Amino acid sequence: MTPINPPKSLDQLTAQEIERKANIGKIVTYTLGNLTSTYVNEGFQWLLPVVLSQSTDPLWPDPNASIETRIEVDIYGKPVRTMSSMIVHKLIAASTVYPKLFILSPNVRIEKSERGKTGKHIYEFTQLDFEIQNATSKDVFLLVETALCTLIKALKKDMKEALSAIGRFDALPTLEGPFKIFDREDLEAKYGETWEADVASEITQPAWITNLPREFYDFEDFSTGKWDNYDLIMPQFGEVLSGSKREYDYAKVIKKMEQHGVRKENYSLIIQMAKEGRLKPTAGAGIGIERIVGYITGVRHIAECQPFPRVPGIVHEL
Ligand code: ATP
Ligand code: ASP
Ligand code: MG
After folding, report:
1. How far apart are CA 184 and CA 229, in angstroms?
2. Is residue 293 part of a domain?
3. What CATH number is attached to the domain comprising 275?
4. How many domains does the structure of the chain reveal?
5. Residue 315, in any domain of the structure
6. Strands 67-69 and 110-111, how do they pair?
7. Nearest CA owner, ligand 2 atom 7
8. Domain contains 4
9. Closest ligand, as measured to the CA of 286
10. Cα–Cα nearest to 111, from 72, 81, 84, 129
11. Structural domain of 85
């Protein structure tokens, strides 16, 4: 495969590249409008994001995590981190005031420089992150299937010109739910370590992958060792979403934090709420905006969908 040239900054674009970037920008705008409307119409509250907090996603132990630097500074005498995801905020917000919520959440993950070449990683991105009290994985599957099928149908109707201009109108398949569900263990047995890329190259419709061992907040059935969590994989592309039913039982949360070597002092609120029975059963997920738009537009590098590209290893002035 030919190497992927990193996307240029705005000032470096030729006239033709400006036109292409503008068409991608129209598709980003349309996608954001369409997805957020679906969530609002389904009764979700739209929360504004935070950027700095004491508590954020440990991104550990996720076998795919590749973080070079974690950003931590002291403000007002307390250490805060840039958000790697708003998972902790989601769990507490959905357990208290906002039983159905979503956030367009800016995430900073300083991925290792070699990830600049995957075409799928950027060091600042946005998740449409959502959480629902008393929901099951099946509820999340149905919601996401509805949102994405609606989005692609609407894009093909309203954005024909922009999609055609970037050569993607005919190649973009209409989606139809329910999407197939695969267990990660079966895929590993069939394909070995490369299962994710192999599945992505074989499917023609999106597919759910369940039972992925990862962070403490994803639900694990201790009696079977199975995880009630999921990724959504798009055909010829790969992962665009991760989520799960959540742990809320105090003893399990503590046990997993200890097993994973997570620093409990960064999660005292969630621990306290679980102890008091105030952490509610919830389920949710996050859709990577640049990933889903990258899939829709068929770009070589998802940073092409960013006005100000954030390619791991490359820092532009803007
Ligand atoms: P990957 O395995 O692809 O590196 P991940 O599983 O580590 O990603 P998650 O922690 O599941 O990522 O993040 C939730 C979602 O956010 C992902 O499904 C993806 O859509 C998006 N995302 C995660 N990391 C990045 C990144 N570096 N650049 C762009 N989007 C990302
Ligand atoms: N957004 C993800 C979730 O809801 C967490 C993450 O970003 O890692 O599970
Ligand atoms: Mg993931």
Report:
1. 10
2. yes
3. 3.30.930.10
4. 1
5. no
6. antiparallel
7. 85
8. no
9. 2
10. 84
11. 10-305
